[in-house]
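Ligand: NG1. Inputs:
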Amino acid sequence: MEEVCKFVSAEYPRKSDSFIQYGTAGFRTKGEALPHVMCRMGLLAVLRSKQKKASIGVMITASHNPEEDNGVKLVDPMGEMLDISWEKHATLLANVDDSHLAETLSSIVQQEKIDLNQESCVLFAKDTRSSSVLLAKALQHGITAMGSEFVDYGLLTTPQLHYMVRCRNSNNDYGQPTEEGYYTKLAAAFVNLQKSVTDTGKYSSEITVDASNGVGAQKVRELAKHLGEQLCITVLNDGSVGKLNHRCGADFVKVGQCVPDGVALSEGMKCASFDGDADRIVYFFQGPDCSFKLMDGDRIATLVAGFLKSLVARTGLKLNLGLVQTAYANGSSTSYITETLRVPVACVATGVKHLHHRAQQFEIGVYFEANGHGTVLFSDIAERRVNEALKNSSLSPESRAAVEQLRLVIDLINQTVGDALSDMLLVETILCHSGWGMQNWYDCYTDLPNRQLKVKVKDRNIIKTTPDETQATTPAGLQSAIDKLVEKYQCGRSFVRPSGTEDIVRVYAEADTQENADDLGHKVCLLVFDMAGGIGDKP
Ligand code: NG1
Ligand code: ZN
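Predicted complex:
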């Protein structure tokens, strides 16, 4: 261990003593501050692999953040996020002095009872950021310093890397752990599902994708090659001219509620925006009054939950279905899901890991963040019942057809994590099966006007919240002041929370009109600024 650490510290010394935390989405900061962190995560990934006796993934990306940022996340054996109990090891290891590295590693080995002689393998990939190339080298050096095997997948979307990890650890039951295997699995399920539709009604098989100038551009083009005539994809913001995530992509479109640069929106166009690492997707189109209509993660969640509920009913199988949201979910979507679709809803803290864990408690768990990150989880029981039903020769033809469809839907979904490519195919499948154009989908419910804002404060951790993040418990008096404001607005709702990925406090506001939502949001920003140590210009 001493030798390993000597090499690591010499090649990738920790140059500054600023503290970095393994947060909602791993480590994220300026790319130039990450080489030593990346190398150390190589060491940690090897330890995790030895402990789990399985391949572990590492993804180098900062998702929707600007090009100069970068980040790293570890992926556990079934393709899920690193277990929360290991986040403290990651944070500790990233922040110790070079001189304490060996001792810290040894203590993790001891605490986690790791057999250093166990074989290990780390699978890694990167997004298109310019700093990703050097960071991948640093990571690889960390992995090889520990004498571990690795597979460098080069450029992948985040969900593709998660998929590879799951395949490698599932004896290929989940699919082939190659890019080709990924496209083939998704495309086969999609094409088979589309084939059974005879009347496509208002559905259009043409879609324009804003790829946020990120890795999703080349990957969605690869996917398109496998889809034949079934889906015609035009890719814009493919990185050939524009800057990554700059005035485009899912986050820009969702937060700004506007058309991204590079897309000339016109009547009849169906558009989708990915984020920089293609794990989020939102749709948009132009309404009859030339207005911009956003179809965010809440809309996708309701579409998927409604479709699955009726499909499961047609199979005749008894499987409970639930949906998981966060406090950012539009109030109208929650009412629609509970009252019209009659699907139970759970609300958890922001961050995919929270949604994922909660969704695992349902037999079929749909989860989506309003920003477009989400997927569907099928429990072992659900998959077993579907597979058994496929072998049951006494099923009625209608039930059989439904069971076959459900099996294909399971194959279409990347269950490891939200996946823009897989989610896009799922939405297209549902729209096609329903014979729906964008307006039909939009007509399901009317969003409450809302606004998301940010406030800079000295220390964002001054703000603590209840577990579901709907109420601030500190600083004293902030929540009651927010409540007093909210009371003045029809359908008013607002909450604040410290961001896990940026050094800011997020403010969310909802009300009966856009003007009121903006006004409420602005007033809550002022409260945060005054009561939680705002810095810089007053909002
Ligand atoms: P923070 O910065 O903690 O709000 C953001 C998103 C999360 C999640 C993470 C990871 C919002 C309001 N927050 O987290 O949902 O996607 O980034 O990328 O969209
Ligand atoms: Zn992302």
